[in-house]
């Protein structure tokens, strides 16, 4: 009975909500009657953007453990501890490895991988206690196939895959699933800087010969968060028009 009550309360925590994939995921979840807790470093008018009162935004840097902890304490006060966690915030700092600066390595690993440790560590406790939870990490095909100029980014996303599989094994018996979605090239601010020739080269590598859109990532996230995804765990699922096939 207790499990049912917790499952009935659909509360999702999404990092990196201010634009791109995170924003689309937030819209999709709020439309599916979730209470959405969204975060970003920049201010964001969540109620206006999602056209809903069932949401709240926190300015929070995913690399800052104090900020994460105080966000968590605020959520406890308002009784909105999530049972779905989507680690979406991420950055790129591309450079060929020989020229890659230590800061470019540290920033990308901290933002894309250590952040997932920071946040999951806090939120998983209540999932374990209630024996219910869904954790979805937004990875990248770069973590599966490796991209030249993205050693830092590819390493961070590959690390996310290992994190996901190991944690999935630890918590599966507690009715908690942990999965990765690995987008290919999706139209967002992260990918809007390509010159025509570069874009043509990219499209030639994608069997579907087109970029994806954030909605396609959001749809899979919603599926994995639902009971339809109950028996899927430890997986990295690509959404990439066939770019990477294992
Ligand atoms: N677009 C693609 O083709 C693609 C492909 C594969 C994987 N992905 C992955 O999908 C995720 C979303 O990408 P996107 O394309 O939507 O990127 P985006 O448009 O650049 O948005 C990134 C989001 O993350 C937030 N963010 C970045 N660093 C943060 C930090 N330290 N703390 C808190 N929030 C932070 C940003 O908000 P603030 O700047 O306000 O903090 C923003 O809301 C990323 O993990 C990315 O690696 C994207």
Secondary-structure element pattern, one letter each: HEHEHEHEHEHHEHHE
Ligand roster: NADP nicotinamide-adenine-dinucleotide phosphate
Q: What about the largest sheet?
A: 7 strands, parallel
The low-confidence parts are 1-5
The CATH topology name reads Rossmann fold
| CATH top level class name | Alpha Beta
Strand content: 15-25%
Question: What's the alpha carbon Rg, rounded to whole Å?
Answer: 17 Å
Reported CATH architecture: 3-Layer(aba) Sandwich
Number of domains: 1
The CATH superfamily label reads NAD(P)-binding Rossmann-like Domain
- N/C terminus separation: 41 Å
Q: How many DSSP H or I helices? A: 9
Average pLDDT score: 95
Total number of beta strands: 7
Which descriptors apply to this entry?
246 residues; alpha/beta; Rossmann fold; seven-stranded parallel β-sheet; 9 helices; binds NADP nicotinamide-adenine-dinucleotide phosphate
